[in-house]
Amino acid sequence: MSLLMACLCGAAAAAGAVVQGAVNANVRSGSSEHARIIRSLPPGTVLEVLQTGDSFTQIKAPDGTTGWVLNRLLKLDAAAPTSAASAPVVASVAPPTTVTELQTVQQQLKLAQQEIRRLQVQASQTPAKPASTLVMDPLPVQLNPIVWLVLVLGAFVLGVLLGILWLEHRYRKKLHGLRI
């Protein structure tokens, strides 16, 4: 089973990267320039690469902090793969050395393939919810039209009163408390 987990997760030897340039690299909470800055790393800091995207790389700093850094601020280690798309998935287990170990691994692989097929069939048989059920009604309680009228008129009257009070406050302030 450990072989299956290693294959499915795409776990390979972790790649490395170094902060390059003359400026500090901001570590962000997400893969966006609008994401919150967690901390800043000085040039020359060695990092562990967890995942590589188009513009950002998810890293793990020496102190254990994980976050996202702009790709242009990093020099990636060319010897190690940085993502599942750029290199084949390799399990981090030793190859079987005996026939019985090979048979055990093949058996585990067959069980994993059967489990994948079972989950695919289960997913295909699960009915998809129509889009209309996903949209929520803005007001789930149906109100009587008279109640609507009272609510709307009440809100209108409240707005008018607040407007009058604001204008009175404004003129008093402008006239330094003199009565009109």
From TrEMBL:
Domain named SH3b: residues = 14-77
Identify one Pfam family in the record: SH3_3
Task: Give the transmembrane region(s).
Answer: 146-167
InterPro entries for this protein: SH3-like_bac-type
**SMART domains per the record?**
SH3b
**From which domain of life does this come?**
Bacteria
Q: Which UniProt keywords apply?
A: Membrane, Signal, Transmembrane, Transmembrane helix
Extract the signal peptide range.
1-17
What's the protein called, per UniProt? SH3 domain-containing protein
